Amino acid sequence: MATGYKEGSLDAPTRHALPWREESWYDEAALDAELRRVFDICHGCRRCFNLCDSFPKLFDMIDESPNEEVEDLSAGQIKQVVDACTLCDMCFMVKCPYVPPHEFNLDFPHLMLRYRAVEHRKGETSKADRLLAETDRNGKLGSVLSDVANWATDGKSETTRGIMQQMLGIDKRAHLPKFADIPLTNRAVALVPAPNPDAPGFGRRVALYASCYDQFNDQTPGEAAVKVLAHNGVEVRIEHPECCAMPKLENGDIPAVASAAARVAAHFAPLIDQGYDVVAITASCALMMKFEWPLIEPDNEDIRKLSAATHDISEYIVKLSKQAGLTPVEAMDASIGVHFACHSRAQNMGPKAMEMLKLIPEAKPVLTERCSGHGGKWGIYQQNFDTAVKLARPAVRSLEKTAPDYMVSECPLAGSHLKQVMEQGGAAKLPERIGHPVELMAKAYGL
Ligand code: SF4
Ligand code: SF4
Questions:
Q1: CA of 95 to the centre of ligand 2 (A)
Q2: Residues 6+ apart with CB under 8 A from 162
Q3: Coiled-coil stretches, from where to where (predicted)?
Q4: Can you give the CATH number for the domain in which 422 is found?
């Protein structure tokens, strides 16, 4: 499957469908040989030395081994490389010259995924990873008991955070998202305004896919997206049939991802037939729906249809502005630090948040491309938190360089992690929040 434009290369990279139903994919000797083949190529190349913690670990371990050979690595050392990977996709999308159709046929993130799929099949996924991947169940429970849940997970609740650290390995210093007391879809009737019939986008229909985070935690980006779209004439409905299963993908639980993908795609198929575009508020969900699901279930017609109909919210607003025009946006003389989240970059659509914010007259967005280091649930674990903070520092420095009036990120977890690292670093000018770029569009519209 071709994934479109690739940064730094003229060739369109392709990604093979994941053969997760074939027994040979789980053969541990074959996997070990493939890991060593790929690690050897990477060790010679080293381009990805500063993308994450996996590559420096890999290179150091080979360099410090007796013969400086990949064959010297123990099984435990290989696991360390896999465990340091957040599946951000950056090495495949941005840097690697050896991805298919190159004969080296190298797809580092999907090799890490294969390792985790083998671990998952053997029942070796940790209890914490399994619990945290049940985002819908956790979100429903957290919403019903929001007062208690928000108190227990707050960084100031030392006893409960200490228990969570001991039982689940969640670092007590890591910021955890608050729960909303009512899920976003339950507020849809009150929240979604009638589309403006005089606006250029009138006649278009959007089914807005709320991520678990939009549904159960921070609803500000969803509210802003609804208002901006309706103000531009678009008829909007909010949908959250279930989680996109990114946390289960991180666990290597491919069968669970495949069944979630089939159910969500079946939910959206009739809406697409009725003329709805599907728009994801959170970048990770858009990545799953556009690219990962079709590689897991390439023969599922609903999934193919959903993949083609899915847009990221910034991408959709930019597209709307080009195809139909936008309701005039008020000028906003403000500098904006824009964090280009990995799962937004991995969609191969260019920095759409930048393009969208440039639609605000007098706004001055400045792009930061460095990874936040958070990586879904990866960064909250005790064994990863300090590394997640270290990895965030270049992104924080870049964001702070222009002392912007606002900071935004298309990844909500990256945004709150970056803010926490700024707080720890004693930033002179702390942002009130690092929200989604669409919130600034809503602000510019005075919504
Ligand atoms: S997918 Fe991301 S975290 Fe994993 S190895 Fe590649 S760049 Fe590193
Ligand atoms: S993933 Fe590709 S670009 Fe990165 S170090 Fe390996 S071979 Fe080089």
A1: 7
A2: 172
A3: none
A4: 3.40.50
Tens of pLDDT along the chain (447 residues)? 444 444 444 566 789 999 999 999 999 999 999 999 999 999 999 999 989 999 999 999 999 999 999 999 999 999 999 999 999 998 998 779 999 999 999 999 999 999 999 999 999 999 999 999 999 999 999 999 999 999 999 999 999 999 999 999 999 999 999 999 999 999 998 899 999 999 999 999 999 999 999 999 999 999 999 999 999 999 999 999 999 999 999 999 999 999 999 999 999 999 999 999 999 999 999 999 999 999 999 999 999 999 999 999 999 999 999 999 999 999 999 999 999 998 999 898 999 999 999 999 999 999 998 888 888 889 999 999 999 999 999 999 999 888 889 999 999 888 889 999 998 887 777 888 899 999 999 999 999
Please give the tally of structural domains in the chain: 4
Q: Which atom of ligand 1 is nearest to the CA of 51?
A: 7
Lookup: tokens for 70? 């990949």
In this structure, are 305 and 376 located in the same domain? Answer: no
Give the domain extent around 162: 127-168
Alpha carbons 92 and 99: distance in angstroms, whole number: 7
**Residue listed under structure tokens 């108190």:** 151
> Measured from the CB, is residue 340 less than 6 Å from ligand 2?
no
Residues 314 and 216 in one domain: yes
Give the mutation target among 47, 112, 287, 377 for probing the ligand 1 site: most ligand atoms within 8 A of CB. Answer: 112
The size of the chain, in residues, is 447
For the CA of 96, the nearest atom of ligand 2: 3
Using the mean position of ligand 2's atoms as its centre, give its distance from the Cα of residue 46 in Å.
6
Q: What is the C-alpha separation between 86 and 375, in angstroms, rounded?
A: 5
CA of 134 to the centre of ligand 1 (A): 23
Pure H helices in 283-328: 283-287, 293-296, 301-309, 313-323
